[in-house]
Design brief:
By secondary structure, the protein is α/β, with parallel strands linked by helices. It is built from 12 helices and 8 strands. An 8-stranded mixed sheet has the order 3-2-1-4-5-6-7-8, sandwiched between helices.
Length: 324
């Protein structure tokens, strides 16, 4: 794959793109480039004020995009909020061409979603599973829709899990208080593993249904996005947080470059469904987009099927359009 930059993105005039977590970091940079290339860009954010600030920042950089960028309020930790956001979006547009499932939380305090799920798994996977399913009619209304779900290098460290039930049911019922805190760190990797399993299972279902929809995944490598600084661990260990921030800024790539795999996955015409894109440099830590490596369990169709069924049961979102 030749060295690629966002300058090679196609003209997206007339297309509708939505990016979750678009108020900062990689999500903001992804939305910025989509708008720069002419897409009507929807900033899906939990905090509307931060969304408006992001919209103004994009308009300041790209004055021609002022009328193209809108804010959509959605809290991925609430299934009710996701349903409301999908209804709102259906009133705004007839189709969605590009959906970038980018938002995520990492090692938060030991809290749960509004529906009682472990917060990382509930937000990073179940929230995007529900949102994508709620938006499926709009995605299928597009000429050729592309769904990009952002995973992470940490998915490779997630231990093999054949039953996701502890993550998809009311999580605290399965753990003592001490176990709950230990599992917060491993739960992040598990949520990123779930992102890949979901991506590939969705693409298999789309192919079987013979619909014009491609589901792909991406990861940013090692990017200076501030995600670690926002974790509960870093908040309680200020020295470690400060050192980590310095190391990340010195060795990691910028959020703008970290967005390249997502942008490539969202717009490159020769990309096929089920693919996984990350940086091409050593260890997939930095560099231009290239095919990325998945763990063996991320490629296991039986595990993906188990996760899919449990995600349907947990969210009540059934993807009926792919079962016809």
């Amino acid at each position: 794959m030749p060295h690629w930059t966002p300058e090679e993105m196609p003209d997206l005039t007339g297309r509708v793109a939505m990016v979750t977590g678009a108020s900062s970091g990689i999500g903001f940079q992804t939305a910025l480039e989509l708008a720069r290339h002419g897409a009507r860009t929807l900033l899906a954010v939990r905090d509307p004020e931060k969304g408006e600030s992001a919209r103004e920042r994009i308009a300041a950089v790209i004055p021609s995009a002022r009328g193209l960028v809108e804010v959509v309020h959605v809290d991925l930790a609430s299934l009710d909020s996701i349903e409301d956001a999908a209804a709102d979006l259906a009133d705004r547009t007839a189709a969605v061409d590009i959906l970038v499932n980018n938002a995520g939380v990492m090692v938060p305090d030991g809290s749960t979603t509004a529906d009682g799920f472990e917060l990382q798994f509930g937000t990073n996977h179940l929230g995007h599973f529900a949102l994508t399913g709620r938006l499926l009619p709009l995605l299928l209304a597009a000429e050729s829709a592309r769904i990009v779900t952002v995973s992470s290098l940490t998915h490779r460290r997630a231990r093999p899990i054949w039953d996701f039930e502890p993550a998809t049911a009311n999580a605290k019922e399965f753990y003592t208080e001490a176990e709950w805190h230990r599992h917060r760190v491993s739960a992040y990797g598990r949520s990123k593993l779930a992102n890949l399993l979901f991506t590939r299972e969705l693409d298999r279902k789309a192919k079987r249904a013979r619909v014009s929809l491609a589901s792909v995944a991406a990861h940013p490598g090692y990017a200076a996005t501030g995600l670690f600084v926002k974790t509960s661990f870093s908040r309680h260990h200020r020295v470690v947080s400060g050192l980590s921030n310095l190391v990340t800024r010195a060795t990691g790539q910028s959020a703008a470059t970290g967005a390249w795999p997502s942008l490539y996955a969202a717009t490159h015409v020769d990309l096929f469904g089920g693919e996984y894109i990350g940086p091409r440099g050593p260890g997939e830590m930095r560099g231009a987009p290239a095919p990325a490596a998945m763990s063996l369990i991320a490629q296991d169709e039986s595990v993906a099927a188990i996760l899919w069924d449990q995600s349907v049961a947990a969210t009540g979102v059934g993807y009926e359009e792919l079962s016809r």
